[in-house]
Amino acid sequence: MVRIGLMPPKGNMRKKLPDPLPEGFILMDFEKKHWKLGKVIGNGGFGLIHLASPATKDNVGDDAMYVVKIEHQDNGPLFTELKFYQRAAKSEHIKKWMKDHQLSFLGIPAYWGSGLVEHNGKSYRFMVLDRLGVDLQKVLEASGNQLSKTTVLLIGSQLLEILEFIHEHEYIHGDIKSANLLLGFRNHKEIYLADYGLAFRYHPNGAHKQYKEDPKKGHNGTIEFTSIDAHKGVAPSRRGDLEILGYCMLQWLCGKLPWEQSLKDPVAVQEAKIKFMENLPTSVHQCFPSGSESSEIINYFSYVSTLKYEEKPQYQKLRKILLNSRYKCMDSQFLFDTENFKNVPSNHKIQNAAVTRHKTRRQTQHEPKSAKEKSNTPRNVEHAASLKLRDRKAEVTMTVQNKPKMTGSFESSVSPQVKVRKPEVTMTVQNKARIIGPTELPRGPQLTYSKPEVTMTVQKETRVTEPTVPSSMFQDQIQIKSDVLLYGFAVLVLIVSIILVIMFL
Q1: Fewer beta carbons under 10 A from the terminal one: N or C of the chain?
Q2: What ranges does the record list as Basic and acidic residues composition bias (predicted)?
Q3: Which CATH number fits domain 3-340: 1.10.510.10, 1.10.1660.10, 3.40.50.150, 3.90.950.20?
């Protein structure tokens, strides 16, 4: 990836990387907490990342749960990151947001501490962070540079929750990409948006930054994904973050972006993005292999393209676009095969961290059954599959004389066969609506019938007014009758029940 406009320090980058501090070195942060350094496991930006643990007599092992990011004191990116954490990502703010929005997980990085240290006559700034696992870029490389549609849409939905938090706390991330998305160290189902070296305060003191193009500041960010506004040198905005996220999702789905062959020419990339946004939805269709479906991404880009520079996005609407009716019952955490990357080393270039949250799922819990429902639930039923309202076929369970149970469409194995006409029955379905009327006995998801009172004509027209069981001894047809008043009432209830069923479809 080509990354430009990042305010690099003067001189050779290698000279600006700090020398690794010795293992066992003790740091003291501004709150007087002490941290012991372990080995270097990676580097990010212009600094090094050491394993760390609270200072004890023990050495820092490979299973340490903290890292320390150390950079030269005069570096800009780490200072910007610190300001973001201190202003927007305080632990109490994150917890309150999660409670107010009923979230069990939010991948917002927060830090344990920070401070300054001198070693061999040089001054360094450091941050203490939770240790995280591999970045999503490594997952992509292990997955052939593409992710499944379900995974992409679920990741996108989680990132919209993260961006909403950041934006509501006056900041823009500005550099969303797979290398800045990190998985949990122990739980690969957690994902965090890290690296706030380009974070920008777009709404200081209650006033939004004004739209102003500045060619001297043009093309800031990671060239593949940066927004059209950033190409023009306009200060970052909320719509810019959403545009960047859209480009990321498009690349994760298709494996590449239309302008990737022009990354060395920022102006050509800018023109390609403008053309892309002006030619929706055709431009999105052209990115996908023939026959692929991409309506969610099309609708996402269509909405983002209408946003004004200072307009507040409708985050919930965007989440619904990504997780439409086909995905709304899915778990809100992203999914992929961890076998593809479980052996990928964690000492990659972009290593950041965040506060670990418990339970990464938005649970979709079913309502517990009432006591009445439980009492009506038949026991020892052969087919226990729940009813889906969209299914038209019904599995029938009937309780008749002597209370044996007959489940499903049945055929008598004894000759002569008993032919059953359509009975007048009362049944209880999953949505609690009661349906009365003639019904077939086909195969399919189970409907549980209450005990029907039926009138049957058996053999020599003998009338039976009690619940009874079809038997192999019955020679003639079983004829079911009901009086006119009951039938009229049944028709009325049937109409009401049909309306209820349609409403739940």
Answers
A1: C
A2: 364-382
A3: 1.10.510.10
